[in-house]
Amino acid sequence: MQPPALGHRDRLLTLVSTGLLLFFLWWAENYTSDYTIRILNQIAIFIILAVSYNVINGIAGQFSLEPNAFLAIGAYTSAIITLSPEEKARSFIIEPMVWPLSQLHASFPVSLLAAGFVTAFFALLMAIPVFRVRGDYLAIVTLGFGEVIHVVASNLVKVTNGPLGLKGLPAYTNLWWSWGICIATVFCIVRLVNSSYGRAMKAVREDETAAQAMGINAFRIKTLAFTLSGFFEGVAGGLLAHLITTISPSLFTFMFTFNLLIIIVIGGLGSTTGSILAAVLITAGGEFLRFVEEPMTILGFHYEGIPGMRMVIFSMSLIGVMILAPRGIMGRNEFTWQKFFDIVRKLRAGRQGR
Amino acid sequence: MNQKLLSVSGLNVVFGGLLAVNDLDITIESGQVVGLIGPNGAGKTTAFNAITGRIKPSAGTVLFKGTDVTGWPPFRIAQFGITRTFQSIKLYDDLTVLENVMVAAHATIKYSFLEAMVGVGRYARDEKLIRTQSYELLDVVGLGNYALEKAGTLPYGSQRRLEVARALALGPSLLLLDEPVAGMNPMETMDFVKVIRSINKDMGLSIALIDHDMKFVMNVCHKIRVIDHGIPIAWGTPQEIVADEKVVAAYLGQG
Hints:
The structure holds two protein chains of two kinds. In chain A, 71% of the residues lie in helices and 2% in strands. By secondary structure, chain A is an all-alpha fold. Chain A has a single domain (33-353), classed as ABC transporter involved in vitamin B12 uptake, BtuC. A two-stranded antiparallel ribbon of chain A has the order 1-2. In chain A, a hairpin with a 2-residue loop joins strand 1 (296-298) and strand 2 (301-303). In chain A, helix 3 packs antiparallel against helix 6, helix 3 packs parallel to helix 7 and helix 10 (196-206) packs across helix 12. Chain A is globular and about 75 Å long. The two termini of chain A are 39 Å apart. The radius of gyration of chain B is 19 Å and the shape is globular. Chain B has two domains: 1-81 and 174-255, P-loop containing nucleotide triphosphate hydrolases (Rossmann fold, 3-Layer(aba) Sandwich), CATH 3.40.50; 90-171, P-loop containing nucleotide triphosphate hydrolases (Rossmann fold, 3-Layer(aba) Sandwich). In chain B, 38% of the residues lie in helices and 24% in strands. In chain B, strand 7, helix 7 (186-201) and strand 8 (206-210) form a beta-alpha-beta unit. Chain B has ten helices and ten strands. At the A-B interface, helix 9, helix 10, helix 11 and helix 12 of A face helix 2, helix 3, helix 4 and helix 5 of B.
């Protein structure tokens, strides 16, 4: 009694749609404005963040509030690595940078990897004490850690340049880097979630006692989930730093975490495809809605444009989604090609029926 | 003379001032089905929890396959060969029936998470093996046709059987069943007796079970341990237990 394994059709369709995405990116790079490209980069970074944040929160079910802290660690790590020694000497005006770091200089990919590993290391340090006990301690610890990182970044002047931040980073992040890493991240995480490790994470989420009784080392599984989330969030931090080219402690506030939490909840906690969908909708939607703040004339009525109106509409649509789909757009389900075709078929049948 | 698989001796569990299990001894030989019966609150489930490491016993030892496993964390005891089902069903409701069983095989996989993420190495082979084994186990308990349903949507009796399949997936040598037929109708119970017999005979597993359905317990068990208020009061074959005066007084009642 075994259903046929996933067909080549699905793999082919995924490949083709990835190809289409790459073609679209090529088109966007050559024929659209810098503004559009910037938003596309942001979308890619938010997809990486949402998908990896979803691993610890949605898949392993451990409520955590770490993204702003891990983004900061990743961003600072990679920025310190890509800044040239001369540039560092010029921008550290309060106090000169501490020695080994001041001479550190390597290429962008190396800095991204370093950002990932350094962040993963911090995640591991936090996971070891926190996961020894059961309960919502992770949320408290990560929330506190975010504040600690903020204070450290402001005061450890010899490493972070304090409140002045790091300026003049090379703008390495382009569509190919951000989307390349985004696709790789999604690929890796989807594979992980569908593997035995992903199932074990879900088992811990569903019932930790039962999971333990079935031979799953819950401590190890939770640590793995959290460390992996940390790794990818760190890489995203590196990408973000080289997209906006200026980082300072005030950039990495709790609002970042809050936005990501909204994204993964709207997408459906525990659904990777849901996270991707919501990351695109919310990042692009936030920009798209800017037009409501501009002055315009509707049916002869002149509207001056109210700053902040965008957030009002945004919040209202969030409430709408929560009413219509309390478990998020995708719930805990994933997008599959089979479901896609089923829906298409149903739509077509409906139209013919009329 | 059969080999001793599990021997529990002098097991004590204290909750605050309450002695939940007092000096419990149980021996299970390879291939045996042993029943643990007694009135509600007698400490049966507590004894199971102590054996599987969910709670730490205050005194006593649990010897399994000649190794002292007292106080081991639950996942290690499970990997070492004792798995269980729960009195109140604890399935992973949002996972499919198949996944519920596949999860239990996690301890047996050889591939690392890196191999899983990139999809190379032993990943594909191990996954295929786990999948095939899980389907076989589902067929053993008669759930092969529901493999892709979500576990939470199954009817009660099927959920009980899924718990058994999940407990088997780790390849244990001892299976602990906590009230496996509670809430089942006589037909379902009859079916379940067959499942237990087949696990015991065909797969060669030893089983310890708790239940209040005397007909069922007498039917499947080779040996029975009776406890009352944490104190063991009798040990013997079903025939001996039915005839034991203390058991009749404490639990079975005058027929």
